[in-house]
């Protein structure tokens, strides 16, 4: 792991902050979903929270030689009301990462030839695309008062790739074998 450019380092710190908050927010919303009678959407939130932890860990690890204190500014979603609105918050956060944040961070890391940061941003971007879709499908169910199905949710511990049900034999993003995946 190495890091030579201040702007890529700033973007890693911001992404670390954003992922850390997403992780916490999804645990809170997951607990609320379970209490409201949507145990499978609760599990989805918990599985995706774990994926965001993996992203935060990747960014933090790329920054490991940047020893010191920093103030971190990161996009954050607020609101804790009902399941449909909480899912909208989740969708909005994921779409921000997909359409604004990670493409710009990734291009910067490419421009600055920061290979480790590129990988970390690429992994997150690919997973967030799936998360947005999973949350959208969950919201469609919740709008008609229904929970999602009871399929196991699998998350790749390396890149945060997330799947609903048992569809892949190894991670399509980073190649890690399925037996390493976390199940929720
Ligand atoms: Fe995500
Ligand atoms: Fe992966």
From TrEMBL:
<dbReference type="InterPro" id="IPR003251">
    <property type="entry name" value="Rr_diiron-bd_dom"/>
</dbReference>
<dbReference type="InterPro" id="IPR009040">
    <property type="entry name" value="Ferritin-like_diiron"/>
</dbReference>
<dbReference type="InterPro" id="IPR024934">
    <property type="entry name" value="Rubredoxin-like_dom"/>
</dbReference>
<keyword id="KW-0249">Electron transport</keyword>
<dbReference type="Pfam" id="PF21349">
    <property type="entry name" value="RUBY_RBDX"/>
</dbReference>
<keyword id="KW-0813">Transport</keyword>
<dbReference type="Pfam" id="PF02915">
    <property type="entry name" value="Rubrerythrin"/>
</dbReference>
<protein>
    <submittedName>
        <fullName>Rubrerythrin family protein</fullName>
    </submittedName>
</protein>
<feature type="domain" description="Ferritin-like diiron">
    <location>
        <begin position="2"/>
        <end position="146"/>
    </location>
</feature>
<dbReference type="InterPro" id="IPR012347">
    <property type="entry name" value="Ferritin-like"/>
</dbReference>
<feature type="domain" description="Rubredoxin-like">
    <location>
        <begin position="151"/>
        <end position="184"/>
    </location>
</feature>
<dbReference type="InterPro" id="IPR048574">
    <property type="entry name" value="RUBY_RBDX"/>
</dbReference>
<dbReference type="GO" id="GO:0016491">
    <property type="term" value="F:oxidoreductase activity"/>
</dbReference>
<dbReference type="GO" id="GO:0005506">
    <property type="term" value="F:iron ion binding"/>
</dbReference>
<dbReference type="InterPro" id="IPR052753">
    <property type="entry name" value="Rbr2/Nigerythrin"/>
</dbReference>
<dbReference type="InterPro" id="IPR009078">
    <property type="entry name" value="Ferritin-like_SF"/>
</dbReference>
């Amino acid at each position: 792991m190495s890091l030579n450019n201040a702007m890529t380092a700033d973007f890693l710190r911001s992404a670390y902050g954003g992922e850390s908050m997403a992780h916490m927010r999804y645990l809170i919303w997951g607990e609320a979903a379970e209490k409201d009678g949507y145990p499978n959407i609760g599990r989805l939130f918990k599985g995706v929270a774990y994926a965001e932890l993996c992203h935060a860990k990747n960014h933090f690890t790329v920054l490991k030689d940047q020893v010191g204190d920093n103030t971190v500014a990161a996009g954050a979603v607020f609101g804790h009301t009902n399941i449909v609105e909480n899912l909208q918050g989740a969708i909005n956060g994921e779409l921000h990462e997909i359409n604004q944040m990670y493409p710009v961070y990734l291009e910067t890391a490419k421009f600055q030839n920061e290979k480790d940061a590129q990988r970390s941003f690429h992994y997150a971007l690919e997973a967030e695309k799936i998360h947005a879709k999973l949350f959208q499908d969950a919201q469609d169910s919740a709008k008609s008062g229904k929970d999602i199905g009871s399929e196991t949710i699998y998350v790749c511990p390396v890149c945060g790739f997330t799947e609903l049900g048992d569809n892949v034999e190894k991670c399509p993003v980073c190649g890690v074998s399925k037996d390493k995946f976390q199940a929720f």
